[in-house]
UniProtKB/TrEMBL annotation:
GO terms for cellular component: plasma membrane. Homodimer and heterodimers. This is CASP-like protein. Keywords: Cell membrane, Membrane, Transmembrane, Transmembrane helix. Residues 13-149 form the Casparian strip membrane protein domain. It is a multi-pass membrane protein. Belongs to the Casparian strip membrane proteins (CASP) family.
Length: 167
């Protein structure tokens, strides 16, 4: 008689991976909204500053959008895998796609976060913190958290590689 009371370790791994992808999705969505709507008007001069005025913030939003699109794809693939128990991308190619995709996207996300933090520090040097730099800093922080979840997901996909190579 087989005991089916506990889920298999691969089912737990797939569910944890899906959970990490959902968390990444949420943090990237909030980061995207914050940076895309970020602008500031100077009351004294009437000058308006927006995120697109700074190359580093443009780079940051690009990494958020790329990470968001990749994560959306991976989330759909993970949902299919958890629901059906089968992988869309079968064979070693699917595991390699997950592994290298997670690595590349996480590196992009950390570089976008670093760029956002860097320009915010530089902007705060000459002018005291304002709502513009605070929102940009919050967006960079959320991107950093998204990176952490993607890096953890990358670890899970790395563990899947040797299991499949040995079978």
């Amino acid at each position: 008689m087989v005991d089916n009371s506990k889920p298999s370790s691969s089912t737990v791994s797939r569910t944890v991976l899906l959970f990490l992808r959902v968390l990444t999705f949420v943090f990237l969505l909030i980061a995207l909204i914050l940076i895309a709507t970020n602008n500031h008007s100077d009351d004294d001069t009437g000058a308006k500053v927006k995120f697109s005025d700074f190359y580093a913030y443009r780079y940051m939003i690009s990494t958020i959008v790329i990470g968001f699109a990749y994560n959306l794809l991976q989330m759909a693939l993970s949902i299919f895998t958890v629901v059906s128990g089968k992988r869309v991308l079968s064979g070693d190619g699917g595991y390699l796609f997950d592994f290298f995709g997670d690595k590349i996207i996480s590196y992009l996300m950390i570089s976008g976060s670093a760029a956002g933090f860097g320009v915010t520090v530089e902007l705060d040097r000459g002018v005291p913190s304002n709502s513009f730099t605070e929102k940009a800093n919050a967006s960079a922080s959320l991107l950093l958290i998204g990176f952490l979840f993607t890096a953890i997901a990358s670890t899970y996909t790395a563990f899947a590689l040797p299991k499949k190579a040995n079978n």
